[in-house]
Design goal:
- The chain is an alpha/beta fold and about 280 residues long.
- An 8-stranded parallel β-sheet has the order 1-2-3-4-5-6-7-8, sandwiched between helices.
- α9 packs across α10.
Length: about 280
């Protein structure tokens, strides 16, 4: 089983996680820029963070046989902080970098007027740079936030928009809009493998993106693997699993023209918690 985790915050994870991911079949990841938990107080802290996503983190991933790309943006939560407004002026030079495969995470946190302004400004940057867009839907008032999101992006080609953190209440409207549908699989919150399988049975595997969204909170980098196993147990084929866990994220991020996976190994058999040595 080969796995592409299209949304995982590896900056928050240890090298043990990279080893576990490789053993589970993960061969590629996309790391979206996000809120680090502690409010950033100046633009320079974003610059250092972006530089790490472009330099240090791809190097660290490569030591464990995993290809690393990223998406960059001023995230919705910090869009409300005037100290961070200057990030929008810095983004254009970063969006030219080879390993940046989308603009994101953009979207809503509290659905404020400032979030509207920053969201629309970054959609314009995505169009200017020919990049797809990764959209974060809010944790609160998710249905309302998703509807508002779809109103904002309706001028874009829906095939270039991935609306993430969906659930049973929001998937239908995004499916109807023609955008890509993203689902974060968590131990306690968001979605779980069984609920994800139920959605795949109802809506099919086209335009479906499954991620772990693992970060500094309680999360699990192997939740993508669990979805694949749950799909097989529910009667989906190996090809169905490959579409959801590999070909779909490749198709979405491949629109950037920057996805580099030519020499990435295929996923091997899962060996539980056994760490595969000698792969560096």
């Amino acid at each position: 089983m080969r796995i592409f985790d299209p949304h995982v915050h590896m900056t928050s994870r240890t090298t043990d996680d990279y080893e576990r991911m490789y053993a589970a079949g993960v061969r590629a990841v996309v790391e979206p820029a996000f809120w680090l938990g502690q409010p950033r107080t100046n633009v320079g802290s974003f610059i250092d963070y972006f530089d790490a996503l472009l330099g240090w983190e791809p190097y660290r991933a490569a030591q464990y046989g995993i290809r690393h790309h990223c998406t960059l943006a001023l995230n919705p939560k910090e869009a409300n902080d005037p100290r961070c407004a200057g990030v929008l002026d810095e983004l254009p030079r970063y969006l030219l970098k080879d390993s940046v495969v989308a603009v994101g995470e953009v979207g809503y946190d509290s659905m404020t007027p400032e979030e509207d302004r920053v969201f629309e400004a970054q959609l314009a940057l995505a169009e200017e740079h020919g990049l797809p867009v990764l959209v974060h839907t809010p944790h609160r008032d998710k249905a309302a936030g998703t509807r508002r999101t779809l109103d904002v992006v309706k001028g874009l080609d829906p095939g270039t928009v991935l609306v993430d953190h969906l659930n049973e209440l929001t998937v239908g409207m995004v499916h109807e809009a023609g955008c890509w549908m993203g689902f974060s699989i968590y131990p306690d919150t968001k979605m779980d493998p069984e609920r994800m399988v139920a959605i795949l049975k109802e809506y099919g595997t086209e335009r479906m993106i499954v991620n772990s969204a693992a970060d500094w909170g309680r999360s699990d980098v192997l939740k993508t693997r669990e979805v694949g196993e749950a799909m097989l147990a529910a009667g989906f084929t190996d090809d169905d699993v490959d579409q959801v866990l590999w070909r779909n994220p490749v198709a979405f991020y491949g629109q950037s023209g920057r996805l580099s996976l030519d020499d990435v190994e295929s996923g091997g058999d899962y060996e539980g918690n056994t760490i595969l040595r000698g792969t560096r």
